[in-house]
Design goal:
The complex is a heterodimer of chains A (326) and B (245).
Chain A (H helix, E strand, L loop, with lengths): L8 E4 L5 H5 L23 H8 L20 E7 L6 H7 L11 H10 L5 E4 L6 E9 L7 H13 L6 H9 L5 E8 L8 H18 L3 H6 L4 E11 L2 H12 L12 E3 L2 H9 L2 E6 L3 H4 L6 E11 L3 H14 L1
Helix pairs in contact in A: 7-12, 10-12
Chain B lengths: L1 E4 L7 H4 E3 L4 E4 L5 H10 L5 E4 L7 H4 L1 E2 L3 E5 L4 H10 L5 E5 L6 H4 E3 L3 E4 L5 H10 L3 E4 L8 H4 E3 L4 E3 L5 H11 L3 E3 L9 H4 E3 L4 E4 L4 H10 L8 H6 L10
Parallel strand pairs in B: 1-15, 3-4, 6-7, 9-10, 12-13
Antiparallel strand pairs in B: 2-3, 5-6, 8-9, 11-12, 14-15
The chains are: A alpha+beta (326), B alpha/beta (245).
């Protein structure tokens, strides 16, 4: 049975259907992938109908509805321990974790689901499909797993020629026992109010695990000193870049990490984490299919950063303020 | 033989491919692995055609076909239509269908003789299916679901349906389709068997997440194991002459 962990966060949201939400892609507004049967589609996947009908924000103060036919419906989001039955939903959320790389996602999802003490799944109800997942995986604990090695190789490849490559390598080799891979994926339209309890819940669990885990070895695994984050951002393209953009995309140009383009964060908490990070670097998303969803003037990038555990309290406080201000 | 495969990390094989006894359609993907899996199996036997439908890669859900014909949604572009006509054998009639329910792969499922369709499909479309695909058409639901193409996969030898199909429904469908049916799952408990599996009379492909149990059920209901040499020894022995003295 999934343990209910924190108070529900309600916000008025217009749901399309629970199935559509659950199987929607978190980051890409993919017009192609359709895991969900849709008899009435004129080749429009679940995302199109979802984004077409959702209101602009989950603002609980204003009661706007954009059309006479749209009703505001209250949805309760709840956090649960990961369960084996969440496999498909979590796999869909993590499908683009390593962009278009072919890797052992199923194995990775199994790791996340097996770690029930630290990690949560956001669902609209206990028997619903997951619409968000958060977890922290110790690098050393799972270093033998094929999926972890593949993540390591992927990051190594993407950090080649970057000054931060040695910092990354240090985390993986020297400090791996104290590093937690912080993964947080959710559907893009989930309201920001969910983020503070989500992260607070995770860090609370990490702390409880250091005391409550049955063996000393397991307790050690949660004494994180660093968190490694791999997330998705957009980078603003400056004018002359847009013109050369199409040709540049094909060539493997040396990525100048001091790009003058500003970063646009998909998840607001990433901005706070980025400010608190010890080091970070970005790399462009390689997939041709993902790149096709580029919005004009924005390039999709991945952001890798390391945040020291001592900054986490400041992070959770700043996140609370951010959510309240929205 | 049933083979596990994946399309760019997705186990939903039935979304990105279409398999019949006369041809195989495959979506254009980032890596060639998916295409090579089919090519390796079918090489000179049947053509493996790479294409998109209406610019999308979800071709398995957009079209429906058998050895007699192929039906495409009205959003299919002229180039794609021409590409199909050129690459498929002349015996296969390729036709574009003007139908509101354009995800034909979700609404229609068929083998070479009989088909099941979504209850709300137009009469004209029903006639077209009977004409082009040369099948008998039945309007049915599967475990209460109207998307018969998503929840049922069957060949001329056997079929797999939604796991929650009742025994009575199973018997009724089985007698309609004249093939043995089994209610089961694919891709580690996924109920959408149409998205996770493609099959024809001698082979099947399912997603990488499919468990060994699911795979053995698939091989047994689609009678794929009979292609193994052991069939000769075990089942045909009585009619074979071993030695003559």
């Amino acid at each position: 049975m999934g343990k209910r962990k924190s108070l529900k966060s309600s916000s008025p949201v217009l749901p399309s259907s629970p199935e559509n939400e659950a199987n929607g892609e978190p980051q890409e507004s993919s017009k192609e992938e359709e895991d969900q049967p849709n008899g009435n589609s004129s080749s429009s996947p679940s995302e199109d109908s979802e984004s077409g009908s959702e209101p602009s924000s989950g603002d609980s103060d204003s009661d706007e509805s954009s059309g006479p036919s749209e009703d505001m419906v209250n949805v309760d989001f709840e956090f649960f321990d990961p369960r084996v039955s969440d496999f498909h939903g979590v796999k869909t959320l993590l499908r683009t974790f390593l962009d278009d790389e072919v890797w052992d996602i199923s194995g990775f999802v199994e790791l996340v689901l097996a770690q029930t003490t630290v990690g949560s799944v956001i669902k609209a109800g206990e028997e619903e499909d997951p619409i968000g997942v958060i977890s922290a995986l110790n690098l050393a604990r799972y270093q033998e797993c094929k999926c972890m090695e593949e993540i390591h190789k992927f990051l190594e490849r993407k950090s080649v020629q970057k000054p931060e490559a040695c910092n990354l390598e240090e985390l993986w080799s020297k400090h791996s026992k104290e590093v937690g891979l912080l993964l947080s994926e959710r559907l893009v339209n989930i309201p920001i109010e969910l983020a503070p309890p989500l992260y607070q819940g995770l860090f609370d669990e990490v702390f409880w695990a250091t005391e409550d885990e049955p063996t000393g070895e397991l307790q050690e695994f949660f004494k994180f000193k660093y968190y490694l984050v791999l997330t998705r951002v957009f980078e603003e393209l400056i004018k002359d870049e847009i013109a050369h953009e199409n040709s540049a995309q094909r060539k493997r140009q040396k990525q100048d990490s001091q790009k003058s383009g500003e970063l646009v964060y998909i998840k607001p908490e990433d901005e706070i984490l980025h400010k608190l990070s010890s080091w970070s670097f970005t790399f462009p998303v390689s997939a041709d299919s993902l790149a096709a969803h580029q919005t004009k003037g924005l390039r999709q990038m991945r952001l890798v950063m390391a945040v020291e555990a001592k900054h986490i309290e400041s992070f959770t406080t700043q996140l609370k303020t951010l959510a309240q201000d929205e | 033989m049933a083979t596990r495969s994946q399309f760019e990390n997705s186990s939903e094989i039935g979304v990105f491919s279409k398999l019949t006894n006369a041809y195989c359609l495959v979506a254009i993907g980032g890596s060639e692995n998916f295409y090579s899996t089919f090519e390796a199996e079918f090489a000179d036997v049947i053509p493996v055609v790479k294409s998109s439908i209406a610019g999308t890669r979800v071709i398995g859900r957009m079209c429906v076909g058998n050895k007699n014909g192929l039906l495409l949604p009205n959003a299919t572009t002229d180039q794609e239509l021409l590409h199909f006509r050129n690459c498929l054998p002349d015996s296969v009639v390729v036709q574009r269908v003007d139908e509101r329910l354009s995800a034909l792969g979700n609404c229609i499922t068929c083998n070479d003789y009989v088909s099941l369709i979504h209850t709300d499909l137009d009469r004209e479309t029903e006639e077209l299916i009977a004409d082009v695909l040369g099948v008998e058409v039945f309007r049915q639901t599967i475990a209460g679901n109207i998307l018969v193409g998503s929840y049922c996969v069957f060949s001329n030898r056997g079929g797999l349906v939604h796991p929650h199909t009742s025994i009575e429904d199973l018997d009724e469908l089985s007698s309609l389709l004249q093939v043995p049916l089994v209610a089961g799952t694919v891709n580690r408990g996924s109920e959408v068997v149409g998205a996770g599996l493609v099959a024809n009379d001698w082979t099947a492909f399912c997603g990488l997440d499919t468990t060994a149990t699911e795979l053995s059920v698939i091989e047994s209901v689609f009678k794929l194991r009979e292609a193994q040499p052991s069939a000769i020894v075990n089942e045909m022995r009585a009619s074979l002459i071993d030695t003559m003295t």
